[in-house]
Amino acid sequence: MNMHQIKTTNTLLLFIVVPVILYTLKILSFIFIPLVLSMFIALMFLPIKRWLLKKGIPNLISVSIIILIIAVLLKTGIELIQLSSKEILADDTLFYEIKIKLVQLILAIENIFGIPHTESENEILHYIQKSNIFKNVGSTIEFIGNTLTLTLMTVFFTILWLSESINFQKLLNHTIIKQKNLSIKVFRRIEKDLIKFVIVKFFISLLTGIGFTLTCLIFDVSWPIFWGLFAFLFNFIQMIGSFVSVSFLGLFALVELDTTGSLILFIGILTGIEILMGGVLEPIFMGKSFSINVITVLIMLMLWGYLWGVPGLILSIPITVFLKIIFEQFPKTKMISYLISGKDYQLILPNI
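Below the sequence we write its predicted structure tokens.
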């Protein structure tokens, strides 16, 4: 078999293997999502564990301290959610006001687009029933069950990663990068880049949430803590999250704010916050390590969103950075790495 036939065979095998891998990732998502998520969580805390071990603290106690830190962070998040829930439930009259304005908005839309007006006593209930929302109770229960299972499995896998029952560096060495020294360097770079990504993303999302909360307070829009928390969480979804945050809060403000000028200014400020945080500050703090082509970001969001849903949207960029670093280590895949980052492959590798 000559070189041309070998190359053709390898190409055909690639076209067969890649869809099989993607299909497997989708079918076994209930295992791979918590496994990958827990791996990234563990990588964030491994430097703390190494520091504790250097101080002479036993491995079991080190893992317990890290689990305690994670538990405190989760507890803080739950308390914020409870606080925002109390904020919403305490506002009894607002729901009635929103209902009236939504009915007015629905009537205006019906008049604009010539939609036949319903004679139902409850305009909103008519559209809710039409969209079969109340028929999806079973799906809601299933979603809660899946979320609980995902959380428990993520906790279990995180403990395995932290206790090094699953050693990421050794796994990398045995499967992808056979050279031990190189596998250690790649592991440390993945760890460093991931920590940098999470820290920058957390503080950018935090500033975005604070900005949304303050804007709501200035314009006297209800539930400022809830909307700040909403913006904070959705900002972890690259590109799509910022659009969703502004859109939802803008629709809510459409019901709450009386004047068109105030509404336009309100949405303009929210958009400005997202552009400043996501378009200016985030790329500056991320640096060149996270210079990923916009087209690549969109493709990865669609791919991992299709495979794993919302967790896939959140994990898409860390996975992309992970793949980019791995591809850089091999001459045959360096071109893919530079395509991901949007760099000129021939310019960077003039001898190839």
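The CA atoms of residues 154 and 299 lie 26 Å apart.
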